[in-house]
Design a protein that fits this description.
There is one protein chain. The protein is an alpha/beta fold. An 8-stranded parallel β-sheet has the order 2-1-3-8-7-4-5-6, with helices on both faces. Strand 5, helix 6 and strand 6 form a beta-alpha-beta unit.
Length: 342
C-alpha cells in the first residue's frame, strides 16, 4: 500500500506514524528508558513511550523544514534490558536519595551508590555503542530519554566522530554538579562529565539556566571560555530593554563551532509546556523560541550532527501533553538537522 503522509497513522506504525525500518531510515532515534538518579519528580523512564505514542498525531509536513519524513525516520524498539536495569538501579538509589546523598559513615549507602554508578556505566556503554553503530552506518542519530544522564553516551559517540564538536545545551539547570548526591553519573552531573571526560567537545553553550549552584556558575567562569552560560533572567532583562530574540539567538550561536550537538532537557521550556518533567522551574523558553533557536544554528551555516530530547514525563493519569510537546520538539530537531546536511 502506498504511504499517504496526510492520512491518519496506521495501527502498529512506527514513530510519527511512519512505515520505515532501520535499514531504510536516514534518521534513527534511540530510546533510553532510564532515570535511576532522578531525585525529585519521576516518570522520565516512560518518556520514550510517551513521545512515540504522541508522535503519531503530528502532521508530517512542517512549514519551516518541509518534509523531514521523506528521509525516513525510525525509532528503535524500547530496550527491555535498559528498562530492567532502570528498575534495579532505581531500587538501589532510593535509600541514598532519601538520605540526602551518600553518608560515608553508612557503608550500605556507599555500596548502593556504587551499584547505581555501575548500572549507569552499563547504560552509557550501551548508548555509545548503539549510537556509534548507527553513525558508522551513515545514519543521523537522535536520542530520547529518560533522564538527562542518558545523553552521555550519545554525546560521546558524536564527539568521537566529530572532533571539536560543540554542544548546545537547553536546560533550566547547568548540570555541572560533581557526583551529585554521591552518584558519579547523576542527571545533575551530565555536562560536568561531558566537559571533564570528553576533550573532543570544544565548547558548551548553555541556554535557559535559571536554577544553578554557585559552584556551577564558578565552573563556567573558570573554564577559559569552554563553557558559555546564558542565564534566563539575563536574557529576559535584555529583551525587556529591547534586544530581540533573533539578536539573542545570533549571540548564543556565535561561539559554537561548525558541528553542533543539541542536548535538550524539556525543563528548559516554560513549565506549562512539560509540567510533569522531574524538576520544573518557572521561566524558560516558549516553544516558538526553542524552535527559533534550533533554526538559528542551521541558518548560521552550522550543522546539527546529533541531538536528544530528555526528561519528558507523562502525567500520572496518562496525560499525553508532555509527550505531545516532546514529539513536536523532536520533529523540529530532525527537520533542522536534515536541513543542515543539505
Amino acid at each position: 500500500m502506498t504511504f499517504d503522509p496526510s492520512a491518519a497513522a496506521q495501527p502498529g506504525s512506527g514513530v510519527f506514524g511512519l512505515p520505515h525500518g532501520e535499514a531504510d531510515a536516514g534518521v534513527v532515534i534511540v530510546p533510553v528508558p532510564f532515570e535511576a538518579t532522578t531525585s525529585y519528580g519521576g516518570g522520565t523512564a516512560r518518556g520514550p513511550e510517551a513521545i512515540l505514542s504522541a508522535s503519531r498525531q503530528i502532521d508530517l509536513f512542517d512549514g519551516e523544514t518541509g518534509r523531514p519524513y521523506e528521509a525516513g525516520i525510525h525509532m528503535l524498539p524500547i530496550p527491555e534490558e535498559i528498562a530492567a536495569l532502570d528498575a534495579s538501579a532505581r531500587a538501589a538509589a532510593q535509600p541514598v536519595i532519601e538520605a540526602g546523598g551518600v553518608d560515608r559513615a553508612r557503608p550500605e549507602l556507599v555500596r548502593a551508590a556504587a551499584e547505581v554508578d555501575r548500572a549507569c556505566e552499563q547504560v552509557n556503554a550501551w548508548v555509545e555503542a548503539e549510537v556509534g553503530r548507527l553513525l558508522a552506518a551513515g545514519k543521523r542519530v537522535g536520542l530520547v530519554g529518560g533522564d538527562h544522564s542518558t545523553a552521555y553516551g550519545a554525546i560521546a559517540a558524536h564527539a568521537r566522530r566529530y572532533p571539536g564538536l560543540g554542544v548546545l545545551h537547553v536546560d533550566a539547570h547547568a548540570d555541572l554538579r560533581v557526583a551529585f548526591e554521591g552518584f558519579t553519573w547523576s542527571h545533575a552531573s551530565i555536562l560536568h562529565n561531558v566537559i571533564e571526560r570528553l576533550p573532543a567537545v570544544s565548547r558548551l553553550v548553555q541556554v535557559g539556566l535559571r536554577d544553578l549552584s554557585e559552584d556551577e556558575h564558578r565552573a563556567a567562569a573558570a573554564s577559559g571560555g569552554r563553557i558559555v552560560q546564558h542565564l534566563d533572567a539575563a536574557l529576559a532583562e535584555a529583551r525587556f530593554e529591547g534586544e530581540t530574540w533573533a539578536a539573542q539567538v545570533r549571540r548564543i550561536v556565535e561561539p559554537l563551532p561548525k558541528d553542533v550537538y543539541v542536548t535538550f532537557d524539556v525543563d528548559g521550556l516554560d513549565p506549562t509546556l512539560c509540567p510533569h518533567t522531574g524538576t520544573p522551574v518557572p521561566g524558560g523558553l516558549s516553544f516558538q523560541m526553542a524552535a527559533s533557536l534550533v533554526a538559528g544554528v542551521v541558518k548560521s551555516g552550522r550543522r546539527i550532527v546529533g541531538f536528544d530530547v530528555v526528561e519528558v514525563a507523562p502525567g500520572p493519569e496518562g496525560d499525553e501533553w508532555d509527550g505531545n510537546v516532546g514529539a513536536r520538539l523532536l520533529y523540529k530537531l530532525i527537520g533542522w538537522s536534515l536541513r543542515s546536511a543539505a
